[in-house]
Amino acid sequence: MAWRVLVPIKHSSAAKTRLQGATREPVEHARLVHAIQLDTLDAVLAVTTHPLVAGLSVVSGQHQLALPAQIQVLQDRGGGLNEALAAAAAELAARFPADGVAAMVGDLPALRGVSRP
Fold this sequence. Notes:
Layout: E1 3-8, H1 26-46, E2 53-60, E3 72-75, H2 81-95, E4 100-103
Parallel strand pairs: 1-2, 1-4, 2-3
């Protein structure tokens, strides 16, 4: 069985509010959050060549996400994090019934992917 990794991505202005004091302006905070999100997604993309990783999807309510083309974007239909992940996981399971779905947090700064056969 291969796994599809599902990562929730929150709008940059609403994410990582504990870090707002580390930046001077809201636009700087949004850039910092986006960089953390991209670190996480890049780490997962680095291991998508492994036979146990079938793909990477994000669930987000944002309509204008600047993400690598290999990442499938699923729309957050509202209701909170658990509901968004459950709906997105069900959508992936219906599309790819032979694969499992694994959810992971989307804000792991400096995460690195290492593929081990």
